[in-house]
Design brief:
The protein is α/β, with parallel strands linked by helices and 248 residues long. 26% of the residues lie in helices and 26% in strands. The protein has helices at 29-46, 57-65, 97-107, 124-130, 143-155, 192-197; strands spanning 15-19, 86-89, 92-94, 114-118, 135-140, 161-165, 178-183, 198-208, 215-223, 226-235. Helix 4 (124-130) links the parallel strand 4 and strand 5 (135-140). Helix 1 (29-46) crosses helix 2 (57-65).
Length: 248
Amino acid sequence: MRPQHRAFGAILILTLMFVSCGPGVEMSRSTMDEHMQQRRDLVESFSRAADVRITDNRVLNAMLAIPRHRFVPEDLQEHAYDDRPLPIGHDQTISQPSLVAFMTQELKPQPTDRVLEIGTGSGYQAAVLSRLVADVYSIEIVQPLAERAAKTLEELGCKNVHIRAGNGWLGWPEAAPFDAIMVTCAPDAVPPALADQLREGGRMVIPVGPENQVQELYLLEKRGGKIERRSILPVRFVPMTGKKKAGL
């Protein structure tokens, strides 16, 4: 699997947009029914995948509940339930559904978790997480994407996703510590701010590696104040950009 995903970074923009989704929120019947069979077919395919098999029922149910077509541009609606990334404008993409599910499964989200996401993009990953955790704090460098994602999530009745337009390298210090962190773009090293904002015992899923080369998807865990890492899967993401400090 060699997915290309969104870039992230640049200047800190002090714009906040608060919206919400959550385990108890129901989508409208028309939204759920119209594309439900396509979602069922997509989710069923996850259990047959060789390299990114999804077995967590909570994750599968979250993927089934979220209407991916609402996060896809109108001219690409017919491909909304294809298992591949799609462009969403500003040289960014909505992630491949099986990879979203796999990364979510590896994060092991719990109902009481507060999760930081770096790279909101379309808002799709945040919407999936919102069904599984207490709160999602998501940062996106491209302000029009942050605004569009906030609008989509609000229309879907989400209540536990908080979106900020800004620099992902800095994290969201005033909302820290986080139980889990999901990163959807590749730094060349783990940003120290993200490691600092992860609570003791917390988990982070992050692709790390040089631009335009195969990178490694890692699961990081903080134990005794130190970051332990486990390699999960070779991937290829666009780089995390923006104001950098030395990485781990």
